[in-house]
Amino acid sequence: MRILFITATRLGDAVLSTGILNTLIQQWPDARITVACGPVAAGLFSHMPGLERVLVMRKRPYDLHWLDLWKACVPTRWDMTVDLRGSVISFVLRSGRRFVMRGGRRPGRRVGHLGALLGLSPAPHPTVWLNDADRLTAAQTIPAPSPGAPVIALGPTANWHGKVWPTENYLPLWQQITADYPHARAAIFYGPGTQEAELAQPVLHALPDAVDAGGRFSLTQTAAMLASCALYIGNDSGLMHLAAAAGTPTLGLFGPSRASEYAPTGALTRWVEAPGPEGQAPIAGLSVECVANAALALLHQTQA
Closest Cα to residue 36, out of 4, 10, 61? Predict the structure, then answer.
């Protein structure tokens, strides 16, 4: 059984697709799976059971990256192709069953649309695949939790400035959290690159005792560290979805992006939205008090 799985370029969308991919792995445990995705998401699949290879799609002018993908895939006769990009590639490869997601935006949860493609209802939760080395990195980086001293992950970055909750809000947020949990420890998560580091730096400066958990770790190491935290609070981003997939209680912060489509998915996930029309509300309108109240409610639930 050979499966071609074409998933997203963006990290968040790729994370959301792991639920249906994991379902395929469970249904066909001996399958050999090739994953095609963008470079940002490629590390997600490093330790996936049944992985044959990851084809990294690097964007090229005139959509030539699709030609590259076709050249890489055309020698193989696929038993199944799952194409979440809705590309023509799926129809010009030798394949048995095809599941092709049509393009265009539609209302409702993205994870639900993905599940519906394979006839799965409810849609399976996203997941992460870790190895022992990832867990060791997490144990060496994130302090061991103890009663009354949770480690709380903060995610102050996003790939679009409009999604970024003002970084000056994290100090008063932390003050409200530590009024209830005085021994809590913060861990600041952010991705690689200058933009991510610049967004995280004010929060690291405001919380000098925080663990710096960003910039230099692989995706699976980051997922293992998130799984070691009692709570994640952060913007609508790939890291938010990764935290939820890792099983971390997750609070997503939404402004001009749509929680009705991209709210975090998992057993213990919540979100808060800035006041105003969905998809148009400035995230600066989301108050510290609103975020703190939601965070503490989720933390009380999980720490009880």
Answer: 4
